[in-house]
Specification:
Blueprint (H helix, E strand, L loop, with lengths): L1 H84 L1
């Protein structure tokens, strides 16, 4: 009778061990997928932030150039008016 119990316990222990290993493996995959998703989201946020700063910098440069050209145009008009009045 002891041999029957022993012959049933060994496969049962192996089955339980296999099920536990499968469960742990699935949990590990789920955790890895979650970490990868969070990394992708973080990467997207960083890229968007860098692009936003770059665009803002470029916009500031364009505004500055436009303002300079307006000032030069106003100065040119003022000089023309002075020359015309003299």
């Amino acid at each position: 009778m002891d041999e029957r119990i022993l012959s049933l316990m060994v496969p049962a222990v192996a089955l339980v061990s296999g099920l536990i290993a499968t469960y742990v493996s699935l949990q590990n995959r789920a955790l890895l997928a979650e970490v990868r998703q969070e990394l992708a989201e973080l990467e997207n946020r960083i890229i968007l932030r860098i692009n936003g700063q770059y665009v803002r910098g470029a916009e500031c440069k364009l505004r500055e150039e436009a303002l300079e050209s307006r000032i030069q145009a106003m100065l040119g008009r003022g000089e023309k008016k002075r020359a015309a009045s003299e």
